[in-house]
Write a sequence for this structure.
């Protein structure tokens, strides 16, 4: 073989090696991209897989001394008695790594004291404490996503139904790592489905409105109002400071709904006792049972709030009932009634009637948190003074005070209603424009 042919063979060899390297890089890049893209597109199916992996894990409540109570044991003798309570929870989490592989990570979540990873070789931390919906960050595996948690929920006195002391709940907590367009769309789909089912039941049972005589309740209460209320109920007012935050905070709620479906917020109970997806209290639910017997609400409050369709039905009934109280004082159409029903839902319809009595309804359309609606009230108070003879005597005088009509929480709630409504309308408009472009 000559020198020329040897040189040519070397060039051929170099070209072949170069092509192989380029192909390997492209294939590797394609595969790496496929894992990330596929995991985003298939997130909902991976959520089901994560829940299945946690089904056989055991989790428990940790109990210990949480305080001391001083008890009287005799006439002059007291004794300090330890108070037992929940000190922490053993939990298990399903973490999806960058390669699409699941890892079961166990740890101890101490109430308001952080999280300790127990499984060797892993490290998770808390980004935000919020009970079963606490937000976790995966440091190892890096960029991991927590898709599910198995969490022991205290069922003391059967507050969630059943006779067991502990419910080993499997749930998907919010994290920004799973917040994406697909799961938000799923959240809107689940929410709309629950509203549709609630309306179908009420229509089938021929429940008539108390606000508009002769009309079915499903023809009266706007679905859009319910959609906003279901989001507003689960946003922390301390986080919602301006309209610019509406999208991010609404996406959080929709992510939880999309990931958990009918179980979303099933274990949420406020300090006031409001529970579940619609955050309703027992006394309000009891009034609706009596006022709308034809609606066929579940008689037991706990069971009723555990069924999200039944809970949304109760929300529809409450909106109709509040509108029925507002309408004789002030005629407001379905396009404008939302803020009024939001204020009544959060602070009671009596305060809305006070606002109308003071002719401050313009505030509802454009709420200014720096100028909350107020009213002047008169109170008869006792004052002490001396008579001409020097005797101390009590007499009554009337004093006038200017007080806010709404609590600060309710004023904020009305503002949040507008912000969320604007976000959802903007999102719908974008969706419609996208459909038009696709048709073109």
């Amino acid at each position: 073989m000559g020198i020329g042919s040897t040189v040519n063979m070397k060039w051929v060899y170099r070209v072949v090696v170069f092509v192989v390297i380029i192909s390997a890089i492209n294939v590797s890049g394609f595969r790496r991209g496929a894992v990330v893209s596929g995991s985003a597109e298939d997130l909902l199916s991976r959520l089901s897989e994560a829940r299945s992996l946690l089904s056989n894990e055991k989790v428990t409540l940790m109990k210990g001394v949480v305080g001391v109570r001083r008890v009287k044991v005799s006439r002059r003798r007291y004794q300090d008695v330890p108070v037992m309570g929940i000190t922490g929870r053993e939990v298990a989490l399903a973490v999806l790594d960058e390669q699409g592989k699941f890892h079961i990570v166990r740890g101890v979540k101490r109430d308001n004291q952080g999280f300790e990873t127990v499984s060797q070789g892993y490290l998770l931390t808390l980004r935000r404490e919020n009970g079963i919906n606490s937000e976790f960050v995966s440091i190892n595996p890096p960029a991991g996503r927590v898709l599910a948690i198995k969490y022991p929920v205290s069922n003391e006195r059967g507050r969630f139904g059943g006779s067991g002391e502990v419910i080993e709940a499997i749930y998907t907590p919010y994290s920004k790592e799973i917040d994406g367009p697909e799961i938000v769309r799923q959240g809107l789909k689940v929410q709309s489905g629950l509203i549709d089912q609630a309306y179908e039941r009420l229509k089938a049972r021929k429940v008539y409105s108390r606000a508009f005589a002769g009309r079915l309740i499903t023809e009266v209460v706007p679905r859009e109002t319910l959609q906003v209320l279901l989001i507003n109920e689960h946003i922390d007012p301390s986080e919602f400071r301006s309209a610019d935050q509406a999208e991010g905070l609404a996406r959080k709620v929709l992510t939880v709904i999309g990931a958990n479906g009918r179980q979303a917020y099933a274990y949420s109970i406020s300090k006031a006792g409001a529970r579940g997806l619609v955050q309703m209290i027992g006394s309000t639910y009891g009034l609706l049972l009596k006022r709308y017997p034809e609606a066929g609400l579940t008689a037991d409050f706990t069971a009723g709030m555990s069924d999200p369709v039944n809970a949304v039905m109760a929300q529809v009934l409450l909106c109709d009932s509040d509108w029925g109280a507002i309408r004789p004082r002030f005629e407001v159409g379905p396009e404008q009634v939302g803020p009024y029903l939001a204020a009544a839902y959060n602070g009671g319809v009596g305060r809305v009637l006070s606002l109308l009595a003071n002719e401050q309804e313009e505030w509802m359309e454009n709420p200014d948190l720096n100028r909350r609606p107020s009213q002047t009230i008169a109170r008869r108070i006792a004052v002490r003074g001396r008579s001409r003879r020097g005797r101390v005597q009590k007499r009554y005088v009337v004093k006038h005070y200017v007080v806010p009509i709404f609590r600060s929480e309710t004023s904020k709630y009305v503002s949040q209603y507008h912000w969320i409504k604007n976000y959802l309308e903007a999102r719908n408009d974008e969706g419609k424009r996208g459909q038009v472009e696709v048709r073109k």
Observations:
- Residues 3-41 form the longest helix (39 residues).
